[in-house]
């Protein structure tokens, strides 16, 4: 073994370890990404009834971030190691390289076996057959991509470096193209960062209106009348602060419509009625629910415009608090 190879051995060991870590992170992120696409376009009423759009988009964004950063690192580390072996053929038979290649296959196998166990468990609990089959095919694609490459590397050890599998190079670029397409499709499904920011503003507006609604009901329960304006509910001692629009700071609109009826209004930037804009194309969307008279579920659904929500307090459901004499 040459002195140059001995000198670079620590570097090579850490590069192989880096390739293992980035491989595992990339395969898991790619699997999560494709699984979310399957969940979105093949919804299951059993599992998705209370699932919101944000519960789909959050893992998609996390997987996109991981793949955008880690997958290129894995790809270039792999190319560097392959080029280094081509330039230094004696490295091909190093024991440490063999150990690390086998260890890579071992770790990848554990991850894939774990995913398959989790998938089968979900299927046995009643998951939609179509979703299960598509997810299994995804796992098979990941397993085939990983094992075909590393088994070809191990096969070269037995054939003394003879490269008879030229299709591996082609397949490697096919895998890269598939990952790039999956990442690009993720931006289409989850939306651009600017669109996500508008959605987050709208979610904040809904949360503010929901909090105001609760404060109005609490005010009515204590005083047996609705407040004439929102500032009437502000209370430093109780820590009640009246929120405004998170983007513009404009106060939310409030009007009394009757003894038990009131209206809250806000201007939204997106529609959560439009499935493409506010949620998966075919999956069920979250509804922010609060009980009212008639047993109906009133929601915070809105268009990309000024939207008002009429509420009627049910006195049988929300009792007026009667103050007791001291």
TrEMBL record:
Q: Does the keyword rRNA processing apply?
A: no
**Which key words tag this protein in UniProt?**
Membrane, Transmembrane, Transmembrane helix
Q: Which residues cross the membrane?
A: 14-40, 60-78, 99-120, 132-152, 173-191
Q: Which residues form the DUF5671 domain?
A: 12-148
Q: Which superkingdom does the taxonomy of this entry point to?
A: Bacteria
Family annotation (InterPro entries): DUF5671 (IPR043728)
User: What's the name of the protein?
Assistant: DUF5671 domain-containing protein
Please give the organism. Answer: Candidatus Yanofskybacteria bacterium RIFCSPLOWO2_12_FULL_43_11b
């Amino acid at each position: 073994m040459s002195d140059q190879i001995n000198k670079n051995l620590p570097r090579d060991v850490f590069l192989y370890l880096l390739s293992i870590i980035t491989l595992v992170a990339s395969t898991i992120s790619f699997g999560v990404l494709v699984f979310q696409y399957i969940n979105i376009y093949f919804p299951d009423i059993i599992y998705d009834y209370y699932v919101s759009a944000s519960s789909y988009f959050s893992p998609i964004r996390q997987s996109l971030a991981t793949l955008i950063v880690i997958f290129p690192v894995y790809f270039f580390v792999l190319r560097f190691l392959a080029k280094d072996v081509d330039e230094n053929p004696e490295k091909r038979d190093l024991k440490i390289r063999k150990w690390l290649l086998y260890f890579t296959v071992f770790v990848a196998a554990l991850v894939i076996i774990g995913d398959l166990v989790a998938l089968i468990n979900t299927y046995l609990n009643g998951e939609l057959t179509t979703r299960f089959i598509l997810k299994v095919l995804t796992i098979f694609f990941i397993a085939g991509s990983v094992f075909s490459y590393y088994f070809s590397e191990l096969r070269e050890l037995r054939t003394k470096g003879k490269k008879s599998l030229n299709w591996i190079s082609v397949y490697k670029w096919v895998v890269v193209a598939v990952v790039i397409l999956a990442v690009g499709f993720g931006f289409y499904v989850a939306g651009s960062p600017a669109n996500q920011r508008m959605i987050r503003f709208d979610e904040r507006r809904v949360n503010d209106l929901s909090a105001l609604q609760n404060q109005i009901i609490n005010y009515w329960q204590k005083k047996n009348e609705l407040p004439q304006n929102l500032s009437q509910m502000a209370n430093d001692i109780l820590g009640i602060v009246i929120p405004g629009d998170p983007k513009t700071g404009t106060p939310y609109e409030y009007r009394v419509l009757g003894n038990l009826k009131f209206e809250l209004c806000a201007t939204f930037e997106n529609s959560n009625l439009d499935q493409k804009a506010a949620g998966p194309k075919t999956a069920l969307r979250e509804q922010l629910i609060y009980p009212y008279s008639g047993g109906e579920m009133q929601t915070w659904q809105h268009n990309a415009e000024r939207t008002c929500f009429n509420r009627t307090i049910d006195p049988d459901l929300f009792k007026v608090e009667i103050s007791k004499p001291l």
